[in-house]
Here is the input.
Amino acid sequence: VNDVSGFGFKHIRVIGLDQIRCIAAFMAGAFPLWFHKIHVINHPRLFNVLFNMIKPFLNDRVRDNIVFHGNDLRSLHQEVCPELLPEDLGGSGELDNTAVVAAAKKLDNHFKEHVERALATVQG
Here is the structure.
């Protein structure tokens, strides 16, 4: 679940074609994680511009598994059990991912290598 409520023009103006290709490669499997679905909530209209720029680079499987909910948390709850969501997303679960964030930060160089490989693949 991605809350992009803070997304704005300052973000979109620094995104170039290489970054768009990298995002698309990441989402299409160039990264060692598998996403069943990606849920996007609280997205401003400007976020649609970014998605429309990325969409041509996504394969059908990825494109079909991105679900936009806007500000409608009820539609999110139809897809994701509220017990798994924090209270600010209408859930009843307590989300404490500090251990996961700390572990991910330790692997920062490892992730950077994957991103570089994904970019090399996309750039051919």
Observations:
- The chain has a mean pLDDT of 81.
- Residues 42 and 70 are 5 Å apart (CA to CA).
- The beta strands are 2-3, 38-41, 66-70.
